[in-house]
């Protein structure tokens, strides 16, 4: 046993316990070995006898030692076999050889960035502006006292006052028409996607997905057993499939296509709605960052354009508040409301009711709207600064893609393949870059960069763009 540390944070009792336990597990104390008496061990270690007696008592209770009346305490033979040195199995092979085919598919392409903020992590909000003092107060409201209604398993579909507050907000901000029961609160868009894929499709069905897109949709859909087929983009947004299709759903981001920034035209929205209505097709409309438009008012969500719509609308609090909150929602047609609430409970047994309650108050007391107003100004200015800095340092070498919205700027950079090299080498320049995530990696022309400005302060932007320029110089061939 290592020498005891008498002034450290770990108690003597714990150190002795862990020392004996390790000696047994590692085979240094063989089965049936006789242990010193508690008095003898106490003297040997210069600790009180009460300490060693408590250690032995615990080790006996846990099955490491046993006592034989009158003859002493011994090392037991009741260890799990896998703990015994002689019974050790071969070490596990590589993760690749252990994962299922589905597991391999899920983990094959690295998608989430390792860094959560900084230049130019896309899609992250600037949490430093979030009014945490208000948020804390609202959370405390529900944590300080006993709220029996928040302590059990979740009500189906989520906390009702939050769904009511969301209903009002979604109608006013995006013309989404629904009743509270149509809103299902989830813990992140991935969960929303997983839920709808599992409830509305069967393995082997086809999902149409914009390409390029946010990586989450194809990863989650494929894991649910769906075949993903690419939807091309043109100036009006996601194109309808050329010929007939037996796809069960189409995933689109009409308010701000991710990552190109295109806004789907009203005509194209109507085309999609009538296309879906005439087939057995669900339109999955992701309005992930529609709060942030800096030029025109947002177009109404597809969801609200017809009353008999086959649209599942997805929203998230990640962009408006902060992603670590993991709060998002789906709006489903009334006819599916009960089934989705049930499905949510059956699959995930969701929780976080106190957080949902705090968010309901955050919205209904007006903090949400004022935070959005404030952040719209912050991001608009950041976007302006980023563009102007890019113009200064890149001039004609960069072409901006569409739209004045969201938390990122998508740029095209030549010559072909340069952006791909920049993605590979960005880390060495302290930058986090994203390119286009296409369904078929071969279809990526390697020219697109997604530059997030949510996680970088105004004062740091120009210096980061200069690093981007240095990276570009190194990579252009
Ligand atoms: C298009 C799109 N939808 C949804 C999300 C993520 O939302 P959540 O944080 O709810 O998973 C992102 C995140 O970047 C996104 O780009």
TrEMBL record:
PROSITE patterns the record matches: HTH_GNTR
SMART domains from the UniProt entry: HTH_GNTR
InterPro entries: Aminotransferase_I/II_large, HTH_trans_reg/aminotransferase, PyrdxlP-dep_Trfase, PyrdxlP-dep_Trfase_major, Tscrpt_reg_HTH_GntR, WH-like_DNA-bd_sf, WH_DNA-bd_sf
Keywords on record: Aminotransferase, DNA-binding, Pyridoxal phosphate, Transcription, Transcription regulation, Transferase
Domain HTH gntR-type: 10-78
Gene Ontology molecular function terms on file: DNA binding; DNA-binding transcription factor activity; pyridoxal phosphate binding; transaminase activity
Family assignment from sequence similarity: In the C-terminal section; belongs to the class-I pyridoxal-phosphate-dependent aminotransferase family.
Protein name as catalogued: PLP-dependent aminotransferase family protein
Organism, as annotated: Pseudomonas vanderleydeniana
């Amino acid at each position: 046993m290592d020498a005891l540390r008498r002034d450290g944070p770990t108690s003597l009792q714990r150190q002795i316990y862990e020392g004996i336990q390790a000696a047994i597990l590692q085979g240094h104390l063989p089965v049936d070995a006789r242990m010193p008496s508690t008095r003898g061990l106490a003297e040997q270690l210069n600790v009180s006898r009460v300490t060693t007696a408590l250690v032995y008592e615990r080790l006996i209770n846990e099955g490491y030692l046993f006592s034989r009346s009158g003859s002493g305490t011994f090392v037991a033979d009741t260890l799990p076999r896998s703990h015994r040195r002689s019974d050790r199995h071969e070490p596990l092979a590589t993760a690749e050889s252990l994962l299922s085919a589905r597991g391999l598919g899920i983990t094959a392409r690295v998608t989430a960035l390792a860094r959560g903020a900084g230049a130019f992590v896309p899609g992250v909000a600037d949490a430093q502006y979030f009014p945490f003092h208000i948020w804390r107060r609202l959370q405390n409201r529900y944590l300080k006292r006993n709220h029996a209604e928040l302590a059990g398993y979740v009500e189906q579909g989520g906390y009702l006052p939050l769904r009511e507050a969301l209903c009002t907000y979604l109608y006013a901000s995006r013309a989404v028409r629904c009743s509270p029961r149509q809103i299902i609160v989830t813990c992140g868009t991935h969960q929303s996607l997983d839920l709808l894929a599992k409830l509305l499709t069967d393995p082997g069905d086809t999902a149409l997905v914009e390409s390029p897109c946010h990586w989450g949709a194809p990863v989650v859909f494929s894991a649910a057993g769906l075949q993903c087929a690419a939807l091309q983009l043109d100036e009006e947004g996601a194109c309808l499939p050329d010929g007939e299709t037996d796809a069960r759903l189409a995933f689109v981001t009409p308010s701000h296509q991710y990552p190109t920034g295109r806004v789907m035209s009203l005509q194209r929205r109507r085309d999609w709605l009538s296309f879906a209505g005439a087939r057995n097709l669900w339109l999955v409309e992701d309005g992930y960052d529609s709060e942030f438009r800096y030029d025109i008012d947002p177009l109404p969500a597809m969801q609200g354009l017809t009353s008999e719509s086959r649209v599942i609308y997805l929203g998230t609090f990640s962009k408006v508040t902060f992603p670590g909150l993991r709060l998002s929602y789906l709006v489903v047609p009334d006819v599916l409301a009960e089934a989705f609430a049930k499905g949510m409970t059956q699959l995930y047994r969701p929780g976080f009711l106190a957080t949902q309650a705090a968010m309901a108050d955050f919205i209904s007391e007006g903090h949400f709207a004022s935070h959005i107003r404030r952040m719209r100004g912050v991001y608009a200015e950041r976007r302006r600064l980023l563009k102007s800095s890019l113009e200064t340092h890149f001039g004609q070498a960069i072409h901006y893609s569409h739209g004045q919205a969201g938390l990122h700027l998508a740029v095209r950079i030549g010559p072909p393949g340069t952006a791909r090299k920049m993605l590979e080498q960005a880390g060495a320049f302290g930058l986090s870059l994203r390119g286009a995530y296409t369904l078929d990696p071969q279809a990526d022309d390697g020219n697109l960069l997604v530059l997030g400005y949510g996680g970088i302060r105004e004062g740091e932007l120009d210096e980061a763009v200069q690093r981007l320029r240095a990276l570009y110089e190194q990579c252009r061939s």
